User: What shape does this take?
Amino acid sequence: IATFLGRKLQPRPQNEVEETLKRIQGQKGVQGIIIVNAEGIPIKTTLDNSSTVQYAGLIHQLVMKARSTVRDIDPQNDLTFLRVRSKKNEIMIAPDKDYFLIVIQNPSD
Amino acid sequence: MLFIFGHISRLLSMVKCGGSRFQFCANAAIRPRFLVMEVLIVTVGTTSPMHFFINTLTESAYRSMLFSEADREHVPVRVFDENGKDVTPQPLYQPDPAAVMSKHSKIFASDTSGGTMSDFYSTAYQTTTNASFAGPFTRSVFGSSTVSRGSQSTMESMNEEIEDPSSKRDISISLSDVQVRREEVKELIKEEMLDDVVDRYLIESETLWLLHMPAVSVSVDSEEAVSVKERNNLYMELCKNRMGNDKYVERSMQTFNGAPKTKEVQSEAITMVDAATTWDMYDSFRSAGLGEAALSPDTDKASVPEIVSNHRLDPTRAPERTMSPFVVPSEDEPDPELVLQSEKFQQDLFVMERIILENIYQPKLAAYRQLPTLEVMLHIECLITYKQPCLLDVPDPDSVPKVVPTVVSRREESSLDEESTLTPALERLWSFSCELTSGHNVSSMAWNKRNPDLLAVGYGQFDFKDQKSGLICCWSLKNPTWPERVFTCESGVTTLDFSASNASQLAVGMHDGSIATYNVESREKTPVIDSSDCAHKHTSPVWQVRWIDHERGASGEDKGETLISVSADGRISKWFLRKGLDCIDLMKLKRTRNEKAKKQVGDKEKKSEALISRQAPGLCFDFHPTDSNIYLAGTEEGHIHKCSCSYNEQFLETYIAHKGPLYRITWSPFCSDVFLSCSSDWTIQLWRQDLFTPVLGFTSTQSAVYDVMWSPKWATVFGAVNEGRVEIWDLGASILDPTIVSLASPGVKLTSLLFATETDCILVGDSDGQVGVYQLKNLTVGEGTQVR
Assistant: This one.
């Protein structure tokens, strides 16, 4: 993010979240968005249930491992973003202590 | 006991045969554990006359000893010779019961005797004897560590033999089932005896007879001799036959094994957590050291395993109990809605959106930022493998780019070929547009001075009819689909400019004559300051605003940036903040006909018209790049006035050439004497400061030129936009025709132009609200900075 926008964030209107989600969903190649809480339970998703549960469980473990790796190397460091690019698509994960935001995109769609 | 028997029988045979002492000694050497016994024998039977005596005496002696052994009474054994002398062999060492208090002896005694350690004397007495006889038992009891040593124990002396087990005792840790008791005993002793110096004495104890079966010998001459001999012979036969005899069969016994029973136990899934990770320890240390403040959300985020391990380790970390009230709330399941509305989530969404878009627009952005090689390779590789353009970030190192002729006449290949064979072209990369902006006319664009990726676009109509509410969008290069900021204004925006000193301040001029400044950093939708309250505000549309940095403050004010505006009411005003936005007029643009008539003698145009107003609407201005006192102003009449900030009544110069309103004046950034002007009379004029007629004029089409701008990179290049096309002129190449011409989409008028400062791109705004980004390709321009 440019330094220009690295300011203290002001409270945003509530519907902006919905708008942003809609925009992301409408972007080219985006296959699905999953929001998972800290326990690993999906709270919002645009995919079908079985895929959602599968993604949530697997990605949870992956993020834990990744975060553990990063912090083992330097405990003051922390994981901010994780991208897994595969042949068919790309999974982008924004982890936080309360939730995971997972977006699956196929860029060559 | 068997081998005792065997030994005794052998000994007996020796005795019977009248073995000499030597043989006894030999035996003694071989079977050291019976050394004591044999010593006795030897001692006793030193002389042959004693030989016989041995038999009788030893027999009785043995018997008595056996009995003593059997009932565990320690009747002292006494041996008498024929003379009645007490030849009881004395023990080599009289144990001192008080002295021997080694715990090992006690333990050993308790171990083997099974609890008959009654007094010290007895234990001491038993010690060495136990050692000697219980040698084999010792070894079996104490396990393998002693066995190896025992088997290799020296056979030289008894002492050593005795020493060995005791030393072994020192070393070995017993495996027996009296472990507990021993430990208890150990414990007791330890506490008492810790500080004492313990003396260990290794003594030789009395020989204890555990089993003694004396051999009976019969004189050859006696009556029983025959039967005894027979019996012996039978026995010998028996021994010989034992091997293959059916009567003697190896037989094993089986112990009873309890029937095995499988039992299943179910437990909860055991989660294995790496608790002792580096970061976990770091977190624990921090939270312990810093107290509650350490867990505040804006410092390290506690990860979920950390919370888990926190609670697992809770019993062991009692002082950290104070942390638990703080930890518990974070354990509670946050409301999903709360999660979704949290600030962090919105920021993550924001970042995610940008990343997704980066995926999509990656080649375009790469081209914008002039990273051609990567993209070239990728594109060619994609075309080869997939037969269609695709987006990959990782270039395949195997596919070395070769010149592959493709159908698509894209720029990627063009850079591989020789540039001279290709014509310069405009490549459309993407366009900034969204549904908010569609239908609005792009009136002006400005780059942010500090962040070259940020673009402000103002939307508003030029004509006084069709006035809609104006719109300002701040776009970021990282998100071409949605603006970062959207500000709505009451009237159409005609001009805007970013401040250089305060990079987030955006000044906007509007169609209703008001000027406002916005702070684009904040998310507020209202302007920071507005000129609507100003008494001297413009009454007509503000056509241009500019932040000008004065080196010398005009009228004694401090140096700094001031906002200058020109509007259709004929005033060029300088705005500043003094209890609200206020302005003073720098210049009033007067109608110049009269003035010109005054200046130039002999001018034929002496018509004086009935003037509606004395002032000419100003449409544009531009300050000199180096001398901020001098500026040019263009009016609706087509005149260009050179003015100075110091004189606000008179123009310094006037340049007349255009026949229509001037839409843009711009100084050349490279050549400080030269400026360009464009107007609705279809022409662009190139002027030099000291010449009153234009040096060059450019006409290409018959449509009004709305915007012209020098390229910031090349001295001889400028771009112009008229209603239907974008033209890039390269004066070094041709002064008659534009070098690149790009047509607009039908039905759309192109209205504004902006060069990108660091890359070879231009932005073109059109009347449909789109700002297209184009890349200049193959524009080979000389390095000269002189127009001529």
Notes: Chain B touches chain A through 60 residues (CB under 8 Å). Chain B has a mean pLDDT of 65. The longest strand of chain B covers residues 542-550. The CA atoms of residues 572 and 741 of chain B lie 35 Å apart.
